[in-house]
Amino acid sequence: MTLDDEVIIVTGASRGLGKSMVERFSAEGARVVLTARDEDRMEEVAADLPTESLVVPADARDADDVERVVEGTVDAFGRVDTLVNNAGVSILGMQDDRKFIQDVTEEEYDTVLEVNLKGVFLFTREVLPHMYDRGRGNVVNISSGLGRNAIAGAGCYVASKWGLEGFTRVTALEGEGRGVNANALDPGGRVNTDIWAHLPQEERQQILQPDVMDDAAVLLAAQGPDGVSGESMTAEEWEQHFE
């Protein structure tokens, strides 16, 4: 499985799951566009990639920033083949603790929903016309087990991921007959990223590592216009599906 010359935008590309997917896509031959707010960290990642890349710092919540990322991608590489909506935050990641609904501030709620859901909308809205014009493309939304289940103290994150699951299905329905697939990819458990930075190091080494989704992400990005669409699975389930 290779992604020779494919053009892939990855949001939240400066660290964790996003960084790992960027490195894997590039290793498979793709030209990768890294976007996040931390330009210095993205430049460090891009410096070691074996293929062409583009670093475009942006806030996923800002429509002008998002437009600049996609326009910059098309200017540099001529098209967008795959969008990976990976950028995400949680109150747990921001404060190292869960927070019950009555204690959540409006600002905290807005931050989580705007990054995790509005950002997906803005990037998807911006790339779809380019994909529709070419009659092909893949949108891969990074979800969570909390997009299908719920736990106390994670109301904002759960709301954002349940919304993401529904938005993925709508994107798939609207892409039918236009060559654009949209799917959700869930790592399948806790991953050793900044969200779980409060855990003891020993415990962090025992949970999933940031490369857990790389194989599945490559398989989804390699799909043609007649690929699977409108589905949501864990990384392991996606790998089994494509066997």
Brief overview:
This protein has helices at 16-27, 39-47, 63-77, 91-95, 106-134, 155-175, 201-206, 214-221, 235-241, and strands at 7-11, 31-35, 53-55, 82-85, 137-142, 180-186, 232-234. With 243 residues, it is α/β, with parallel strands linked by helices.
CATH class equals Alpha Beta
CA gyration radius, whole angstroms:
17 Å
**CATH-defined fold name:** Rossmann fold
> Which residue ranges are poorly predicted, with pLDDT under 50 across at least 5 consecutive positions?
none
Strand order of the largest sheet: 3-2-1-4-5-6-7
Task: Describe the overall structure.
The protein has 243 residues and is α/β, with parallel strands linked by helices. The chain has one domain: NAD(P)-binding Rossmann-like Domain (Rossmann fold). It has nine helices and seven strands, in the order βαβαβαβααβαβααβα. It has helices at residues 16-27, 39-47, 63-77, 91-95, 106-134, 155-175, 201-206, 214-221, 235-241, and strands at residues 7-11, 31-35, 53-55, 82-85, 137-142, 180-186, 232-234. Strands 3-2-1-4-5-6-7 form a seven-stranded parallel sheet, with helices on both faces. β2 (31-35), α2 and β3 form a beta-alpha-beta unit. It starts with 6 loop residues before the first strand and ends with a helix.
Keyphrases for this structure?
243 residues, seven-stranded parallel beta sheet, alpha/beta, Rossmann fold
